Amino acid sequence: MKALVTGGAGFIGGHIAEAFVGDGHDVVVLDNFEPYYHTGIKEHTVERCRALAEDSAGSYELAEGDVRDAAFVDSLVADVDVIYHQAAQAGVRTSVEQPRTVTEINVNGTLNVFEAARAADVERVVMASSSSVYGKPQYLPYDEEHPNEPVSPYGVSKLATEHYARVYHEVYGLPTVSLRYFTVYGPRMRPNMAISNFVSRCLHGEPPVVYGDGTQTRDFTYVDDILWANRELLTTDVADGEAVNLGSTDRIEIKTLAEEVRDQLAPDLEIEYGERNEADAEHTHSDISKANELLGYEPTTSIREGVSRFIDWYRENEDWYDPLVRAS
């Protein structure tokens, strides 16, 4: 198949593009290399995908551009079978500071993708959404019927794109799936995420910094589990028109996570605490029953195993990854 992966040089999009090329598919990546974090990480991902394409039956093409450029999006979508729409302005805190930018990229950019997909009659659009659509929990774990009351512009933007996905499926017959990711982590993750930050600081003899009292909990999901679900959606229509949680069900307190990293790398360090951002969710915890029922989704990586695997990867790639993390 020929797949367009928007945001395909980024963290999750890059893993999807790499996996599809390795599986023998033809992949076109759209990315604008926004310097939200050090673009050297994205450039490394592109190099990996290009090298992989030379040794596989799949192909890889990079198209530098922006999802806000409707004409450019139209030109890329015209001859693809499926779209994996991962491009977005990430970051809850960034969205509080730049709500207009987040809306322009996440909402208007997504509308451009859907319009292009409708015109080209693509087989499916799989879109990255977020657990941020839920907001303050009325109960846990979150299932897909939980009220959506996001507490950040980022969460609002993702909820808006979900509604567009539903409408384009119901009104125009465009097959769409919205995947609600729960805090994805793993190799080449964004430097400003908790795990990569904790690891970097501990390796440099600096105490990990927890914002708030550390009792906040997160449902961390290893990127390989996310990849599994995205691969399934290449060939099945069972989730068309749906919003589906993708989490691990294995939540952990942030201070416990910091201690886990600290204990593996620098046991003598003391945890430091900073001021919590009010836009950060207090708790996330996913009910993945729907994903299991529709796709057979069963996450296989516990948070402690995933952290250990990430630390091993970090050490193996410290020569290029660590300087970029420190610079971001």
List the helices and strands and how they pair.
Layout (H helix, E strand, L loop, with lengths): L1 E5 L4 H12 L3 E6 L7 H16 L4 E6 L5 H8 L4 E4 L6 H6 L1 H22 L3 E7 L22 H20 L3 E6 L2 E2 L8 H10 L5 E3 L5 E3 L1 E2 H10 L9 E5 L4 E3 H12 L6 E3 L14 H7 L7 H14 L1 H10 L1
Parallel strand pairs: 1-2, 1-4, 2-3, 4-5, 5-6, 6-11, 7-10, 8-13
Antiparallel strand pairs: 9-12
Helix pairs in contact: 1-2, 1-8, 3-5, 5-6, 7-9, 9-11, 11-12
How does this structure look, described?
The chain is an alpha/beta fold and 328 residues long. It has helices at residues 11-22, 39-54, 70-77, 92-97, 99-120, 153-172, 194-203, 223-232, 254-265, 289-295, 303-316, 318-327; strands at 2-6, 26-31, 59-64, 82-85, 124-130, 176-181, 184-185, 209-211, 217-219, 221-222, 242-246, 251-253, 272-274. The protein has a domain at 2-182 and 223-247 and 279-300: NAD(P)-binding Rossmann-like Domain (Rossmann fold). It has twelve helices and 13 strands. The chain has a seven-stranded parallel β-sheet, sandwiched between helices. A two-stranded parallel ribbon has the order 7-10. Strands 8-13 form a two-stranded parallel sheet. Helix 6 links the parallel strand 5 and strand 6. The longest helix has 22 residues, at 99-120.
Beta-strand residue percentage:
15-25%
Can you give the mean pLDDT?
95
Strand/helix succession: EHEHEHEHHEHEEHEEEHEEHEHHH
Name the CATH superfamily assignment of one domain: NAD(P)-binding Rossmann-like Domain
Shape: globular
Q: How many helices?
A: 12
Strand order of the largest sheet: 3-2-1-4-5-6-11
Which quaternary structure do these chains form? single chain
